[in-house]
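Hey team,

Filing this mostly as a record. A colleague (T.K.) asked me to run one chain through the structure pipeline before their review meeting, and I want the input and output archived in the tracker in case anyone asks later how it was produced. No errors, nothing strange. Just documentation.

Input sequence:
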Amino acid sequence: MQEIKAMILDRAAKKMWYVRYTVFFDNGNRSTAEESTKVPKREKSLTWMQTKYLPVWIARKKEKLKIQEKANHQFAYFADIFLAARENFHDYQNTQYRTSRVLEDFGKKSITSITKLEIKLWLQALKHKATGIPLSKNSKLKYLGIFRGIFELAIDAQLISHNLCDEIRIQQERRNLNKIEPFSVEETCLLIQRSQCREKYGQLLHEYLGIAFNMGMSPAEILGLQLSDIDLKNRILRIQRNITKGKIKETKTTYRDRILPILDGALPYIETLDFQAKKKRSIWLFSGDDGNYLPDIEIIRGEKEIIKENLRIKKTTKWYRLLLDCGIPYRDLKNTRHTFAVRALETKSLTFQELANFLGHGSLQMILNHYAKWIGGKAMSANKNIRLFGDHLGDPNQKKKGG
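Output structure:
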């Protein structure tokens, strides 16, 4: 803001004096408006209003506009506009959460003062709030998308000339593929069989494993299933919500919303839970005795194994106890999903694209990144007696006629 020019107006039909003013901004724009002074004409003369009232009014207006201008330059101001425009978006809850994390450190800063290095260092240091584990490249890119969208609004407001987020690159961190440890066929069968002992492993672990191993869904997706999502007649189910840490959320992305065929291996477990839910008059496939949804996979799994200084601290978790009883080294419960994926590729039961659809992956590259290690040599068993184009391309070793 550069200057304010103002004058007192005598509106014949009004009882109060009015002031008309124009604000001149640094970027060349101007804004003109009128407002009542709330000073009655019968009390003060025009001369008094021009010489006494107006100079004080202009000084106060300048101060007010400076405060407003400062607030309008804050990162938080544009973040509010950014969120308001996304209230009806599919992933709004996740966007709102990520934006709130960004605002913790950038909210009060002027958007014109934030540097590319600040954002880059902030993204590099990002960790999961609960576990302290560094976030993946994909997660950091989503946070970068928050910054980019907010800076675009500052460009629209002509506060900045370009989006510095376009210049930020996040390097791919090397994934620890050893964390993907699928179970063998024998181990899978043993786990499902032994988990039928509900006194030791809880009421729902058996059905959970039956679905997880045979459908490849994540724990949050399985807990989020309602009976209305399941069509047993046509053998299909719809994934459209997650439940984790006590919260019911939308799926992470639009491609995680999906319709899947119910495979034979999963059908009896889903039918059992469907029957039990109807008896409890619950809308949830997995629920407690009261019919309410389960707030987290920990209810079924038990607490995660905790290892400190090479000593196991928690041995009472249901999942750990089952592994121990089966003589299987400890692995995270998410490996049921990895087992489904690797087994589907090994047996050629699903194509890469079908598997991507089952797992809710947005690209085939994600399948390759996750599971190339486990299927790397499988192509060597392919039938070599294949001519993809028949004899139309000829034989390069055959001599031409007349040659």
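Quick notes for T.K.: The mean pLDDT is 84. The chain has 15 helices and ten strands.
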